[in-house]
Specification:
This protein has 10 helices and no strands. It is mostly helical.
Amino acid sequence: MEKEENKKLIEKLISGEEKAYMILLDKYHRQLNAYAVTLTHEQSLAQDIVQNVFLKTWKSRKKLNPEFSIRNFLYKCVYNEFLNSYQKNKTVVLLNKKYIEYSHEVAVEMDDNMMAKMIEIVNKEIKKLPPKCQKVFILSKKEGLTNSEIAEYLNVSIKTVEAQITKAFRILKNELGDKYKTILMIIFTDMTRKFRLNN
């Protein structure tokens, strides 16, 4: 988001404009939810965290600083909310602290322009996947089907599904570099939506 656009949005939030809040939700909800999943590995908990962040942002909107990036602020809030939830919820999968910090760093590094470029790059790489590999990958990561559901849907073995997903990740890792897992999880919702529109 451009600096001036960012400033105007925050100023409107501070003044209590509900339309500005809806713009904020529309622009960042999918990204933040995907990011929260990289931390929690649990969709329902990720959704709760993001919902709490947006509610708290609205309630404390008068404390927002128009000179600060609203995007970075939201990502930081999700990160902090996750840490708070982790302290309270012992059923959350135990995650390596360095991985959590790394995921946060990658997310914050990717501004809106970089995010758009990464979506385009990942979209192109998925199009390059072998047809069967591409189909299994999209069913798994976009549609959220389990390996057994994909196997039944495509009338193939679960081992075949696992092999195709592994193959897809291997190819994408080679093309996208070491950050590929975090990048994919953060941007996948937006990326697959654009992928669908472009086909």
